[in-house]
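Cross-posting from the chemistry board since nobody answered there.

I work mostly on the small-molecule side, so proteins are not my area. We synthesized A1CAB and want a rough idea of how it might sit in this target. Sequence and SMILES are below. Is it possible to get a predicted 3D structure of the two together?
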Amino acid sequence: MKIGFIGAGSMGSLLIEAFIQAGSMLPEHIAVSSRTSSKVAKLAQRFPGLQHAASNAEAAKDADLLFLCVKPSDYRAVLTEITPELKARQIVISITSPVMLDQLEKLLPCKIAKMIPSVVNAAGAGASLCMWGSRLASEDKSRLMQLFSSISRPVEIQEEDVRAASDLSSCGPAFFAYLIGQFVDAAVQTAGMDRAKADALASEMLLGTARLLTEHGLSTEELQTKVTVPGGITAAALEVLRGETADAFQKVLNVTHEKFADDIERVNNSLFGPEGTDSP
Ligand SMILES: NC(=O)C1=CN([C@@H]2O[C@H](COP(=O)(O)OP(=O)(O)OC[C@H]3O[C@@H](n4cnc5c(N)ncnc54)[C@H](O)[C@@H]3O)[C@@H](O)[C@H]2O)C=CC1
Ligand SMILES: O=C(O)[C@@H]1CCC=N1
């Protein structure tokens, strides 16, 4: 068994650590290459047995699973290096939204999956989004679902939904961390509360809210109704919040979708040239 990772940045390192901690990967089965070799050295030191691959080609060679954890703009360089090493039985897993399954199938001679993780997978929580290339057998899909279920809840989606799904699942932690920060700032400013205590209260509240929505199956409306006594404090405050944020998330998704369309065009140009004819 060999599992290759290309890119040991934020998500590459997070996935390696999460899979090892979950016991679903052994360090001695993992080979990692990255442009910044100190990041790989740190992982190798932390997880004895993990191999520091000298090149992307070496990480790819004979890997049963090969994770591509680089940014979209780095795909062309990486694909050029790994293509000669890849064989039909190998599975390449791309973790970035604007690189499309059919583009990878055109350029690589192996099986392709697109799996979008989330930083919350580091806590063994949250979803991972699964999209399948046409060459994967049903055993391959089951194997990937099982692997990702060790660190997350894998959810199969259509590739055309990837942006909105990634917004919810992968960008969401940043959005809600921001909102919690604003909430805490207001508590500190209004009441002079101790910040550490306010942080702890808000974080525990968020965790409990998430558990009610998931484990207890409450809807977001039911949860609001449970807290809101008619004519009470929460009702008055929710009125303000609804007014202030009415179209905030619509605007957020408009921006992510605009940026996504730009990224798709940029990736397509970098992989196939402006006329869509070059190969890397
Ligand atoms: N940060 C997040 O929450 C999530 C990120 N993603 C996707 O994961 C991908 C990686 O994101 P991050 O890990 O946050 O970025 P990052 O910048 O932290 O990591 C990228 C790594 O790739 C390495 N790299 C760049 N070019 C390379 C090359 N030619 N060969 C080998 N290594 C190379 C860099 O040295 C860097 O360590 C992105 O496409 C992003 O969209 C997906 C889900 C969530
Ligand atoms: O590829 C993506 O869309 C992910 C979601 C968060 C950051 N990158």
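Reply from a structural biologist on the board:
Welcome over. Reading the output above for you: Residues 165-253 form a domain with the ProC C-terminal domain-like fold fold (CATH 1.10.3730.10). DSSP finds eleven helices and eight strands in the chain. Happy to explain the token format if needed.
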